[in-house]
Amino acid sequence: METTASALHHCKFEVPEIIFGRGVLSQVGSCARRLGGKKVFLVSDEGLFSAGWVDQAMRSLLEAHLSFVYYDQVSPNPRDFEVEDGAREYIRHGADVIVGLGGGSAMDAAKGIATLVANGGRIRDYEGSDKIHRPLPPLVLCPTTCGTGSDVSQFAIINDSERRCKLTIMSRCVAPDISLTDPDTLETLPEEYICTTATDALSHALEAFFSVASTTLTDVNAVRALRLISRSFVKAVHEHRPEDLENLARASLHAGMAFSNSLLGIVHALAHPIGGLYDANHGSVNAVLLPEVIRYDLPVVTEKLPELAYGLGYAFPDDEKGAAEMVQETIEKLLDAAGAPRSLRSLGVAREDLPSLAQNALKDICIITSPRQADEKDLLSILERAY
Amino acid sequence: METTASALHHCKFEVPEIIFGRGVLSQVGSCARRLGGKKVFLVSDEGLFSAGWVDQAMRSLLEAHLSFVYYDQVSPNPRDFEVEDGAREYIRHGADVIVGLGGGSAMDAAKGIATLVANGGRIRDYEGSDKIHRPLPPLVLCPTTCGTGSDVSQFAIINDSERRCKLTIMSRCVAPDISLTDPDTLETLPEEYICTTATDALSHALEAFFSVASTTLTDVNAVRALRLISRSFVKAVHEHRPEDLENLARASLHAGMAFSNSLLGIVHALAHPIGGLYDANHGSVNAVLLPEVIRYDLPVVTEKLPELAYGLGYAFPDDEKGAAEMVQETIEKLLDAAGAPRSLRSLGVAREDLPSLAQNALKDICIITSPRQADEKDLLSILERAY
User: Fold this and answer.
1) How far apart are CA A226 and CA A259, in angstroms?
2) Which residue of chain A is at minimal alpha-carbon distance from B13?
3) I need a labelling partner for A128 at 20 to 30 A (CA). Which of B37, B320, B340, B385 fits?
């Protein structure tokens, strides 16, 4: 057996059909058509429109003889009302397949819209685990950042604008039918977003690897994501070379396959309430929390550290203590070299909010699979160290 | 980029929903039910019936309030007429979901029956790539050996009894909806079959890793399969410990995910005509061919050898030559220690058939993704060395 943890439980593993490669955005039309679609609801955003990628997607839809409706009323950290408006538009136009093109925001909005058109009600009705009962319309997701993993995951995160918190929806229903990644789209992504979204993928890989629900099926993907990120993160941010960007796109995919099946941990349990309260960039919040959560987790995951150290590009270290130091140091160096933010204060978080953020993190679904059972005091201490 | 090869083409990756763990055979009923089934066509064999596993599956179907028809007219290397009879039985009983429980034979027979009930005709009509046009009934496959990977693959292999050859059917349609592995079922598998089926998984992993269609998505699975096999193969055969058997079941799954998406190479291209002509055990044929094909392939796959050496349990070697020797030696030692057959002669192959076997291998679909383009002379030379 690979680890004691993986021996303790049954393993389930589900990933959508995956298409990956430079130029594959031209296949989005044939994908939507193959899923039985006639009228596509295309969800994207202004940035991708300006960069020309929306136009490319539209051309592919037309070539596949599909009509479409374009919807771009989606903010970063998409709002409940944007998703609810989107669902009304979908129904009004009689669309029958959804394509989400963008980062986590556009893709999660597409998932939310798909949920509502099939199930009705408000998006907050689906918060939590397995609350969706009717199957969604066919869904093709095309990521255009180095993170999120929404294109393969069973999660959707939508901001509740009234309660100022993030709703985490977890259901196999929100995994798309097809995940289509064209790494060429990363070439127009601003440097800042390369850094923050790759940090998100780094968190996904590490949290998935340390999760109590990890298995060999998720571990191989988490470790590959870490190797690709450790090789290409800093170069992708500063030099913008296509091969490094492609490695990050690939890392995002591997990390997504891992965390969608093993779930996450404290970084994301804390990042969700912070993102909900401050509308902060998700990757930036992760970058700040990650080193502190790793430090907190390391004592209970020693058995898996040699494999992780290898993932990060080292030969197998002789002892677990050496591996722990190696892992901690590598993560911090990577984040520093990539220019990631390093304090909650710098993200505008108010110190007096830390206790309530710690309380809310305890209710987040991601806390369940943390390798170390944290109480409110532990979480507050992590937040204070990261402040 | 990971390798030059992976940069050259778009990557597609598809795997069914996977359930893995001791005791999960009790979930087969809920799986069939979840796929909309009311009357199950259960395909298995006498050996599994005697060992009590068919009974366990039946109990699970009854607990899920499903009726079922049991079909066990399946030989090792299943015949075209067995599949065609099965399809008639399926239709006569009005079944609406298929469960295959067994090794490659029972599972491939289940795939063949599913193909015919949805598409009509004879099984040989579907030989080759993408010849199936109508979707199959829901399919749950439960492997009970350490090899085949049929439970996740897009392949089915059926013997053409008139032409005495194996038909290779390749289509995303024959991948099941759910792959369900209960490693407990390996505990009643005879020693000989542990050896031959694990050799099949070993071939799958190596051929998938060397395939020109390999990608990071398939490589991570191939390498993990190799690591698990190198750790547990010999112990599983000789000591029969549950944890080693579970590692082999896991290896079979990883290797299946790899080869289903990257395809195979010369070992399988040669093994198919040999199996068709002699009705020989597929794993035994692979065991004999594998070392010779690896020797033939090594000069053109040097770039990937350090990763493979690591997969086999070594630290990264300093040079590619060292890695090549390491790989070759490890494979041969593993096969010897596990007691695998080591010559075609010992399997009853006649020397005068070698030229026509080489000719037929050139027509096999698996030859396409071989890392080294072999002509008839090369294939004959491999067969002669393995004789």
Assistant:
1) 13
2) A18
3) B37
DSSP assignment letter at A79 = B
pLDDT at A308: 86
The residues, any chain, with a CB within 8 Å of residue A250's CB and separated by 6 or more, are: A20, A183, A228, B2, B216
Q: What is the mean pLDDT of chain B?
A: 93
pLDDT beyond 50 at A6: no
Between CA A210 and CA A331 the distance in angstroms is 15
Reported as a single tens digit per residue, the pLDDT across B319-331 is 778 888 889 999 9
Task: Quote the DSSP letter at residue A98.
Answer: E
Residues contacting B165, CB < 8 A, separation 6+:
B159, B272, B273, B276, B277, B360
- What are chain A's domains? 17-185 (3.40.50.1970), 191-386 (1.20.1090.10)
- The DSSP bridge partners found for residue A166 are A159
CB contact under 8 A, A217 and B20: yes
pLDDT for the residue numbered B23: 95
User: Which residues have CB under 8 Å from A378's CB, separation 6+?
Assistant: A296, A372
Q: Is the pLDDT of residue B371 over 60?
A: yes
Contact A13 B9 (CB under 8 A): no
For residue A336, count other CB atoms closer than 10 A to its CB. 12
A69 and chain B in contact, CB less than 8 A? no
Between A and B, how many CB-CB pairs are < 8 A?
Answer: 92
CB contact B130 to A (< 8 Å): no
Give the whole-angstrom CA distance, residue A354 versus residue A241: 39
- Helix, strand, coil percentages (3-state) for chain B, rounded to 5, are 60, 10, 30
What was the pLDDT predicted at B248?
A: 97
pLDDT in tens, B241-280: 999 999 999 999 999 999 999 999 999 999 999 998 998 8
Q: What is the pLDDT of residue B7?
A: 41
Cβ contacts (< 8 Å) between B24 and chain A: which residues? 10
Q: What is the pTM of this model?
A: 0.92
Task: Flag if B11 and A17 touch (Cβ within 8 Å).
Answer: no
